[in-house]
Amino acid sequence: MSLRRRASLIVLAVVVIVAGLGAWLAPPTRPMAFAGGSAVTLANYSGPDPTGVPSELRGADLVTRGRYLATAADCGVCHTAPGGAEFAGGLPFKTPFGTLYSPNITPDRETGIGAWSEADFLRAVHKGVAKDGSRLYPAFPYEAYSLMADADVLAIRAYLFSLAPVRNTPPANRLMFPFNQRPLMAIWGALYNPDQRFRPHTDRSPQWNRGAYLVEALAHCGDCHTARNLAQAPDNRKKFGGAVIQGWRAYNITQDRASGVGAWTDAELAAYLRGGHVLGRGAAAGPMAEAINASLSRLAPSDTLAMVAYLRTIPAVGSRDLPAPKTELASDLPKEMAGGGDRRGREVFAGACASCHGWSGKSPLFPHANLTGVRAVNDPSAINVAQVVINGARLERAGGDVVMPAFGQTYSNAEIAAVANYVTARFGSARSEITARDVARLR
Ligand code: HEC
Ligand code: HEC
Ligand code: HEC
């Protein structure tokens, strides 16, 4: 046996063992398994069609429908590099195994998908197999998109093909051996991508089914909010129980009252998904703000309400380390060290933050900059607070042009850690102890 062949067999064995261990520790669970009841294929469902576009757009042409669906599935966010042309690819994905770049999905024949047939495109989106037969990495969330109806995938293709082709070849991936072996992804797919279209639940309302389709097949909330198992597949036994993604914490969005969104009203959830902000609960930053800006804020109001109806039925999963947010305001006096905190943190807060955020947690300037009640400041890991300080925050739809500047260049890791610890101690229910080294890792 040649050395190369032997090496690839060893790699295969390692991956089978890891995937097997992953499957054993967390057997694959379908994303809607929690709902129980009976599910039927779309063809056998007699209720209103939960797939496709909302009723407002039912009469629209194919490209318009495709654009709506591509927006709901947020294809652009991953396939657009900062400063690059939309859908032309090149956005880096840093993984523990190396860096992966999203491909160009504009209709350019050489560098994009211009030469892909309808069948090629369907196979990629449902099965994670590229035109040349190579296996795609699940950084492309095809295990969610495999729920999408064929007609919807083809509408998205029609929309992409209506765009101007952009000539762009993203950088080659830099992945460590054995993760650079694409054929191994076939094992992942076999275990974790059931490759089944969405099946409506006959004992649930049409609104619930529409919400389920939007949340699971298109918006792929679980890609960020569900923790992954050893084999990097979402572990639906703790569905929507929260996870860390791209250095941010995507919080628990189950119905748990203390650590999830069980205490939020329907109107609050809808307002957050449409505008990224709820008075007394916080503003979305980081990857959630991106999802809201590019996708969720652009959906029809009836679709937002359907998503809320579905979210309401997600079983509660408690996150032990997330206490219920503190709702009382802190003292208005800067000198009073409500809840403790160190001097350096207070100095940074006084110099860079207090003018917008105030000392009590109630902003003197913009309601969406209140810190009291915000999940991030009640998270004792403080990683989102540190991220917001490093990167700033920009919600397009909440407060008009109001933005929080990025302080990553202004302050050292030690100062950012100090101000994050000060903020959680002063406004949150459990103080954090994030260190300069933790902040360095987040950058
Ligand atoms: C979370 C990020 C993410 C989202 C959202 C996403 N993609 Fe991708 N997509 C990727 C990455 C990363 C790859 C490359 C995977 C690889 O190299 O194995 C990819 C690969 C692809 C490919 C294969 C292209 C090729 O040249 O091999 C197609 C087609 C594609 N995506 C289409 C879509 C469509 C359509 C949507 C929306 C329905 C979408 N993607 C949403 C990250 C994403
Ligand atoms: C790209 C990753 C990503 C996707 C996709 C995503 N989220 Fe989030 N979400 C986050 C992050 C990160 C946060 C924390 C934001 C912050 O601290 O400002 C968050 C916060 C939230 C919150 C606020 C929780 C709290 O306690 O403050 C809700 C509610 C939420 N997401 C719901 C959803 C829903 C519903 C979907 C799908 C329709 C979704 N998210 C899709 C990453 C994501
Ligand atoms: C120019 C005004 C301004 C300044 C200065 C400012 N912020 Fe903000 N901050 C905001 C606004 C506005 C928001 C609401 C988020 C948005 O609009 O995207 C926010 C949001 C936040 C959040 C909540 C993010 C979330 O995930 O919910 C935290 C925490 C925060 N700021 C901390 C700080 C700290 C610490 C400083 C000082 C280093 C600071 N801010 C300086 C305006 C400001």
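^ heme C complex. The chain has a mean pLDDT of 91. The radius of gyration is 23 Å.
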